[in-house]
Amino acid sequence: MGLLAEEGTEIEPGDQIMALADPFGALLEAAQRAGTVRADARLDEVMALVAATGHGAVAGGWSDDLRRRTVELVKDALRPR
């Protein structure tokens, strides 16, 4: 987001994230039905994780290794117990 602002492109991240709510919701429901995502994971929680992780990676200039490890932790947190 900061990189886009530096280039003069204005975006409203809340709008962009909310545009993904329906597709993410459908994916979440399908994954829960398949038993690959924990049943108590809520869409707003998953959206918050995706948004925060993406923003952190961009704003923090995370290395490839840190991004990979962080995604693995998020995926592990969503797995059924």
Automatic annotation (TrEMBL):
- Name the SUPFAM superfamilies for this protein: Tetracyclin repressor-like, C-terminal domain (SSF48498)
Positions in coiled-coil regions: none
- Positions of transmembrane segments: none
Start and end residues of each Transcriptional regulator SbtR-like C-terminal domain: 19-80
On the tree of life, the source organism's domain of life is: Bacteria
UniProt xrefs under Pfam families: TetR_C_43
Can you say what this protein is called?
A: Transcriptional regulator SbtR-like C-terminal domain-containing protein
Organism this protein belongs to: Actinomadura physcomitrii
